[in-house]
From TrEMBL, chains A, B:
It holds the Pfam family Peripla_BP_3. Residues 1-41 form the HTH lacI-type domain. It comes from the Bacteria. InterPro entries: HTH_LacI (IPR000843), LacI/GalR-like_sensor (IPR046335), Lambda_DNA-bd_dom_sf (IPR010982), Peripla_BP_I (IPR028082). Gene3D superfamilies: 3.40.50.2300, lambda repressor-like DNA-binding domains. One of its GO terms (molecular function) is DNA binding. Signal peptide: none annotated. It comes from Variovorax rhizosphaerae. This is LacI family DNA-binding transcriptional regulator. CDD domains: HTH_LacI, PBP1_GntR.
DNA sequence: TTGTAGGCGTTATCAT
DNA sequence: ATGATAACGCCTACAA
């Protein structure tokens, strides 16, 4: 028992014994066993994190990165599950995650079925939903409103005098929310429903190139395109250049995500910025606070910001 | 015990008892406890995966994604640790990972100190190194030679008649290996040492724009640039266009990674392709085979392929 | 096919 | 500050 304390809780032991234990441990190559410890203590210091995918262009990846890093800094490990954009075997997946007895669960950009929500609630574990705002949370939530972001994009483009505004959206819940906000705001401003080109995630530059082509085919006079991600917006800019369309004079292009190339594009990309570093860090911090028994805010809206550059 | 079998190993139990157990289990909301199971069985069905970072542009992320997905399909969970590009606290990090008693460890794009290698070997766990070829492996390895890739790029550009060839490289071990192979091959071909512009990872488009500027300042007559990632190459292309330099006529641009935008750039990007899907899947498959006691190949060179497009 | 016994390596608890 | 004891929940091994 003293040896156990010397390793897990050195402050409860004399310096002399601690050294003795440490010497013996390193002599025999002892490595602590968290599995046994977790069994008795009922704390695993493991966080389960469910994401749609860790594909390279994913717009929420920076938040996941920051979150993971923060958890590691605070002494937790992260178990990552990719859920895909479908919902098959969601139940089973949650079951096997819960069987690991994580101390908490983080859901990122993931809509969850009612049955799954019930299962998560029944588990009694702290649940953090990250990267979205738009529902009654299961437990804790750190995110921002995708609808509001879409609405802000519409208002911004309208404010720049654009009247034939189109969108390239993705068939994925968060993108759909941005689209809904975008459409609603345009309607409120008295504009006709925008032309929308839908693409399947994960979004790529090619979607932007091809999407602009389709949009121009349907209406050669569109004067603005709001894109569901910056990578798509970059595709729209390149396609415009190929077609001799001047950005922003003839076509305003607006992105979402403020990815690290946005400022370096020509023309520099006007886009919507979300503070992913802080978002991910706050999600992890609030989770750890909850685990330490001091829950503060349960819901935190991180907001967003339109970054005005040259493209719109 | 029968209940345990009904859940973990249903084939050892009558259908009738299995149903009875399942009914009871769902009535009380029973969720299996892998922690307890792992303690006795000494199998955790957990794989620890150490990566430098999951930043969005990381060129190895598709391999990690495929690997994770394969592990999940085969019934394993993945614990992800970001190590950063530094080496601080590497020992401690490995220690806490081993304390979780994972069934195996995957190191991705990660050089490991001698002490850490010893610790990993001493653990007796199967270790998979992924995404590189160039050393005596700790245990298993699935990757390709970055030196050979760099050499192939040099030979390709030379074969296209380019003689004043530069490179934009990153201060990161794999990029350094590509650089070394690139430099060696140019020397073998009788060319002078290339001008090299070094940038800090993670690489961004801006690195390409700025890097080309620096290279042209040092030598206005360079006729080719090999870039350490496609995103950097895209920056070089955009910067060339801004400066009125024609690609590929005046400047050949070559990337690395064949990211999903490479084909959609104008001019389409000539680059080096690695089959990340298969690489990640094979790494996971070989690991699981090792865990099942049937080790086949321990080292697997996945090779690479130059994708000739318009930019070089 | 089902049941019994015991232990995996730690930590909570109580005692010294 | 240290020690003794039991228990966490499952699975291995063996028996019926």
């Amino acid at each position: 028992m003293t040896a156990s304390r010397a390793i897990s809780n050195p402050s409860m032991v004399t310096e002399a014994t601690r050294l003795k234990v440490q010497a013996a441990a390193s002599k025999i190559g002892y490595v602590q066993n968290f599995v046994a410890g977790s069994l008795k203590s009922r704390r695993s210091r493991l966080i389960a994190c469910v994401v749609p995918t860790i594909a390279s262009g994913s717009v929420f990846l920076p938040a996941v990165r920051a979150m993971t890093q923060t958890f590691e800094r605070l002494g937790y490990h992260v178990m990552l599950s990719q859920r895909g954009y479908g919902v098959a075997q969601e139940q089973e997946q949650i079951e096997t995650v819960l069987a690991r007895r994580p101390d908490g669960i983080v859901l990122t950009g993931t809509f969850v079925s009612a049955a799954a929500r019930r299962k998560l609630k029944a588990s009694g574990l702290p649940v953090m939903e990250m990267w979205d705002m738009a529902r009654s949370p299961i437990d804790m939530l750190v995110g921002f409103s995708h609808e509001a972001a879409g609405g802000a994009a519409a208002a911004y483009l309208h404010g720049k005098g654009r009247r034939r505004i189109a969108m390239i959206s993705a068939t994925e819940p968060r993108s759909a929310a941005r689209e809904a906000g975008f459409v609603a705001e345009l309607q409120r401003l008295g504009l006709p429903p925008p032309r929308i080109h839908a693409v399947a995630p994960p979004t790529r530059m090619g979607h932007g190139r091809q999407g602009l082509g389709e949009l121009l085919l349907a209406d050669p006079k569109i004067d603005a395109v709001f894109c569901t991600t910056d990578m798509v917006a970059l595709g729209v800019i390149l396609e415009s250049q190929s077609r001799g369309l001047r950005v922003p004079e003839q076509l305003a292009v607006m992105g979402f995500g403020d990815m690290d190339f946005a400022a370096d594009v020509t023309p520099a990309l006007t886009t919507i910025h979300v503070d992913n570093e802080q978002l991910g860090e706050r999600a992890a911090t609030l989770m750890v606070e909850a685990l330490d028994g001091r829950r503060s805010k349960r819901v935190s809206d991180m907001g967003f910001e339109i970054i005005e550059r040259a493209s719109a």
